[in-house]
Structure formats: structure tokens, C-alpha cells
Design a protein that fits this description.
- It is a single chain.
- This protein is mostly helical and about 220 residues long.
- The protein has two domains: about 5-95; about 115-195, hpI Integrase, Chain A, CATH 1.10.443.10.
- Helices cover about 55% and strands about 5% of the residues.
- The protein contains ten helices and three strands.
- It has helices spanning about 5-15, 20-35, 45-60, 65-85, 90-95, 115-125, 130-140, 145-150, 180-185, 205-215; strands at about 155, 160-165, 170-175.
- The chain has a three-stranded antiparallel sheet.
- Strand 2 (about 160-165) and strand 3 (about 170-175) form a beta hairpin.
- Helix 1 (about 5-15) packs antiparallel against helix 2, helix 4 (about 65-85) packs antiparallel against helix 5 (about 90-95) and helix 6 (about 115-125) packs antiparallel against helix 7 (about 130-140).
Length: about 220
């Protein structure tokens, strides 16, 4: 069995409970397939991890941090399975033990002023009423994209001012709603979903892309 075949088979057998974890596993599979240049021959987890980290220098002028931890997570799942099946020797486990878990400093998020957010929402709503309503929904509820899209009317208690939202791992928790969120959701009663955007309409219009690109680089 080739390395690529083993990686594909292993990937199909993983039980992953969230979209983010699925994407992380896919990146790990691709990274191993790319950086294990000789296949099973001289397969070295620590060398694969090191070479992968170095790719950040070309893109970000620094070694990869959290992405390196993501690859380590995937190596910890794949390598023991390959050893158990006789595809790798015990030396691969010794190499795997040398892959460190990096300490990554929390990201510094710049919080925009309320007036800036209000101006941005008004601008989007003037160009795209549905998309603007969805952004306002995220703003006043504090939900993430897929948390909002998965919200059902049965998850909302307007009397108590609470909603049950899906977290990572498909776990639901009940959180309070802001007065603005209660007002917005109340105005949508009678519609098929509380979220003002169809799940199929996720491609952002040019206005969103340009504004977000400017925010990311500025």
C-alpha cells in the first residue's frame, strides 16, 4: 500500500465531529503526502513537521505556529495506526515523540468602534439587504457563521430571552440574547428560520470581499 493510499484510507476512517476538525485533518493529510517525499522510505514525523513549519517563512516571514500544532495532532493519529498495521517501524514512533507541541500566543484582535460597525452594516444593507441582515444578526447575537445557520425556532425562547446554540463537537448550550437580538428575532417570527440567510447563499458579494480584505491587511 502506498503512503497516499494509506493516508486516504486513514482519513476516511476518522470520526470528526466538526467542520473545523475535518478541515484540519484534510490539511494534515495533504501536508504528510507532500513532505514525505520518499513515501514510506525514511518516513520521519519530526522531519515532515519541521519542513512544513518552514513553509511559513515564505508566506509570513516566520515559522508556522498553530498550523504546526495542527499537523502534530494529525501525525499523532496517523503514525500509530501505520505502525500497528506494519507500514512503519518503531523508529517512526520515536521520531513522533520528538515533535513538540508549540506554545502559541493568543491572537491580538482589534475591536472596531461601535460607530464603525454601525456604518459598515448600513453600507452592506444598502447593497445587499439579505446579506446585511445576516451580518446584523451575527452582530447582535454573537453567533458564529454555522451556529447562526443551524439555529431553529425550537432553539429560541423569546420569553426567557435565551437561545440554544451548537458549539464545537455538536454540543448545545443555552445563552442569553441581547435586547437587540430579541427585537431582531421577534421581527422574523412567522418565517421559516430565525436566521435571515439561506445556507446556500454563503458566497459573499464583492462589497464584503473588498471590505474584509482591506480590514485583514490594514
Amino acid at each position: 500500500m502506498s503512503l497516499a493510499e494509506a493516508l486516504a484510507e486513514h482519513r476516511r476512517g476518522l470520526v470528526l465531529l466538526s467542520k473545523g476538525t475535518e478541515e484540519m485533518a484534510e490539511r494534515g493529510r495533504k501536508a504528510i503526502n507532500k513532505f514525505a517525499t520518499t513515501g514510506w522510505h525514511d518516513f520521519s514525523p519530526v522531519q515532515i513537521w519541521t519542513d512544513y513549519r518552514k513553509t511559513g517563512i515564505a508566506r509570513q516571514s516566520c515559522l508556522l505556529g498553530s498550523a504546526g500544532n495542527h499537523l502534530r495532532w494529525y501525525l499523532l493519529k496517523f503514525v500509530p495506526c501505520a505502525v500497528k498495521r506494519g507500514l512503519l517501524g518503531q523508529d517512526a514512533l520515536e521520531s513522533l515523540a520528538e515533535v513538540p507541541r508549540l506554545k502559541v500566543n493568543p491572537r491580538q484582535i482589534r475591536v472596531p468602534a461601535v460607530t464603525v460597525v454601525a456604518e459598515f452594516l448600513a453600507m452592506v444593507e444598502s447593497e445587499d439587504a439579505e446579506g446585511g441582515a445576516f451580518l446584523r444578526f451575527l452582530t447582535v447575537t454573537g453567533l458564529r457563521l454555522y451556529g447562526a445557520l443551524k439555529l431553529e425556532w425550537s432553539d429560541i425562547d423569546l420569553g426567557q430571552g435565551t437561545m440554544a446554540v451548537v458549539q464545537k463537537g455538536s454540543r448545545k448550550i443555552v445563552i442569553p440574547m441581547t435586547p437587540e437580538a430579541v427585537e431582531l428575532v421577534t421581527d422574523r417570527r412567522g418565517r421559516c428560520r430565525p436566521c435571515p440567510l439561506d445556507i446556500k447563499a454563503l458566497a459573499p458579494p464583492p462589497l464584503w470581499r473588498n471590505r474584509f480584505a482591506g480590514s485583514a491587511t490594514g
